[in-house]
Design a protein that fits this description.
The complex is a heterodimer of chains A (71) and B (255). With 71 residues, chain A is mostly beta strands. Chain A has one domain: Ubiquitin-like (UB roll) (Roll), CATH 3.10.20.30. Chain A contains one helix and five strands. The chains are: A mainly beta (71), B alpha/beta (255). Strand 5 of chain A pairs antiparallel with strand 4 of chain B.
Chain lengths: 71, 255
């Protein structure tokens, strides 16, 4: 029996991830470093120190941004 | 040259750089170094999972450089507040260039939403540097709302047109109790020098350097111009006269 998965929406794209995954796990699955990244869940910004404790739930709408150049 | 203090932090350089539009991150980094600047703006975008882009942050993270996340793309106060909070987490700083421009055709800042967002963000602990119209009335309101600086525009973003708002900038500089940073539209080092001679505390330049034939050389030119303009302002410019005033003695020696 495989591990249980949930569906979440990341920047308007549906993906599945293991149940109980945190934002830190999401970063790891996406193979991204934490620098210059920010997350919001259902349009609410999640503080960096809360990433580990924030478990993703079925249907969560996640916004993930990164640093880019700009004036 | 006097140091510039914003929100209790001292800056030796009065040239701030935007990091957009450079043809490569390497060229951007070299231009930042050449400019001697200690404050650079950065932006954010939704991550594209299929795109492995170069990490721009490693090119600008430096102990002497204050990152200034912007809220570019925000069309109203609500979006700007969200962007500001995201920027605080992404970049680990509460410094913020607040910019709210609803219309991409002219990119002019929305004064009402900018004031509303400034009030809210100051209460939330941000150091707010609002990009705004060169409007002395608005700038006074922003100052009273707790903005750390005001950043009135010289001309629309990216136009390189220079000090189109000079008469209003003079009024803003004269009345302001917070540093005045002339932002947007400065297209040549001479424009930056003029702004500094007027008494601006700093200038923010991006396009004019990033799209120059040689951005590193142009960054050097802007550095010199900003310093020259500021030193001239501090030295006290001579008065303008409508009649000639002789620089040599006119006592007759041929009579």
């Amino acid at each position: 029996m495989g591990e249980e998965k949930i569906n979440i929406t990341l920047n308007n794209k549906e993906i599945s991830i293991k149940k109980g995954a945190s934002l830190v796990d999401l970063l790891s699955v996406l193979d991204k470093k934490p620098e210059g990244i920010a997350f919001a869940i259902d349009c609410k910004v999640v503080k960096r120190q809360d990433w580990e404790a924030t478990k993703l739930e079925e249907g969560a709408q996640i916004t993930m941004i990164k640093a880019v150049c700009g004036g | 040259m006097q140091k510039l203090t914003i929100a209790g932090k001292e800056f030796s350089s009065r040239l701030f750089l935007g990091t957009g539009k450079f043809s490569s991150n390497e060229l951007m980094e070299k231009s930042i170094v050449a400019s001697g600047c200690e404050m650079v703006t950065v932006a954010m975008k939704r991550i594209d999972l299929d795109n492995k882009e170069d990490d721009m942050l490693k090119h600008i993270i430096h102990p002497n450089i204050q990152l200034l996340p912007n809220t570019s793309g925000a069309r109203d106060a609500k979006e700007a507040i969200f962007a500001a909070q995201m920027g605080r987490e992404a970049f680990g700083t509460n410094w913020l260039k607040l910019e709210i421009h609803p219309d991409p055709r002219h990119l002019l800042p929305d004064p009402i939403e900018t004031l509303k967002a400034t009030e809210a963000l100051v209460k939330d602990g941000f150091i707010v540097l609002p990009y705004c119209q060169a409007d002395p009335v608005l700038c006074k309101h922003l100052e009273e709302a707790g903005a750390a600086t005001v950043m009135p525009l010289a001309a629309p973003i990216g136009t390189n047109k220079g000090l189109r708002t000079e008469d209003f900038l003079r009024l803003i500089i004269e009345q302001s109790n917070v540093p005045v940073v002339v932002d947007a539209g400065l297209g040549a080092p001479s424009h930056a020098a003029s702004a500094m001679e007027l008494g601006a505390d700093a200038v923010l330049v991006n396009t004019a350097i990033a799209v120059a034939g040689d951005p590193v050389a142009m960054a050097t030119a802007f550095k010199g111009a900003v310093e020259a303009g500021r030193i001239a302002y501090e030295a006290g410019l001579g008065a303008v006269s409508f009649e000639a005033v002789a620089s040599s003695p006119l006592t007759a020696f041929l009579d």
